[in-house]
Amino acid sequence: EQRPDERQPLASAVKVVHLAAYARAVAAGELSPDERVPLTDWERWHLPDTDGGAHPRALERLGVNDPEDTVTLDEMVSAMIQESDNAVPDYLRDRLGDDALREAAAQGGWDDFTPPTMLGNTLALLDPTLDDSSAVRDAARRYASDPAYRAEVVQNPVPEDLAARVDRVQRFDNTGSAAELTDLHRAIADGSFGAGSDLARTHLEWQPSTVPGFEGIGFKGGSLPGVLTDAITFRRDDGTIATTVMLASGMSDSDYAGAFESFAHQEMLFTAANDPDFLERIRCAM
Question: What's the whole-model pTM score?
Fold first, then answer.
C-alpha cells in the first residue's frame, strides 16, 4: 500500500521468478525434477564466500560431500529457496533462457520482467570495471565456462568495502515492485498461475505451518548490506489468502544488523496480514 509500484532492489526475493519458470517447465515436460545434475555443473555458477554460507549449508543438508556427487534438479531448486543458494538461479536461467523467465513472470501478473544474474551482480561487486548490464551478463557466462577465469576470480580476496558497493550494482536488473512480487506469490498460492502452481507452492511452503488456522505459509526473502526484502503468503483454512511484501533499501548498518537480531519485520508482516487493527495502525504511520 505504500509505493506499491515503485521499482526497488529485490535481492534474493527475485528467485520466486526462477522457481516459477522451473515449475512451469516441469509441468510442460521440459524438465524432470528427478534429473541427476553433477555437482560440478551446479558449482560452475557458484562464487565461494559471497553468499553468507548458503551453498555449503545446502550441500550439508543434501548430504553432498564429494565433488563427483550428483543431485536432483529438484534438490537444487530446494537449495535456491531454503538456503537461498545464488548459483541455482543462474543455472536455471542458462538452462531455460530469458524468455522462459519473462513468460513465467508474466503468467503470474509480472509484466516486463528483466532477468538478473546473481553471479554477474556479485562479480560486479568485486570488479568495478563491470559497469553495465551486458558486461555483467558476459562476466557470469565467462565465469561458468572458463575454468581459468573462474580460478582467477576465486583467488582474488573479497574487498573490505563490499557493503559500500551494493548501491552500484542495484542498477544491474535485479529490481521490481511490491505489487509485481505480490501478484506472482498470490498467483502461485491460489493456483491462478496455472500449470506448475502446485510444485512452486510446495517449495515456497517447505516449512510446515505450525500456526493454527493456516493451511500453508509460503515465503521467499533476500538481503544484501542495507537491503532487506520479504514476501510471505498465508493460505488460511477457510480458503482466504493474504500476501504481504516488504522491500527496504538504504538501511543504515545498525538498522540492518538489528533486523537480523530480532526479525521483527517478519513478525510485522505476519501481524499485518492477519490483524486488521494492526494493519490500520501501520497504514496511518506510512
Answer: 0.94
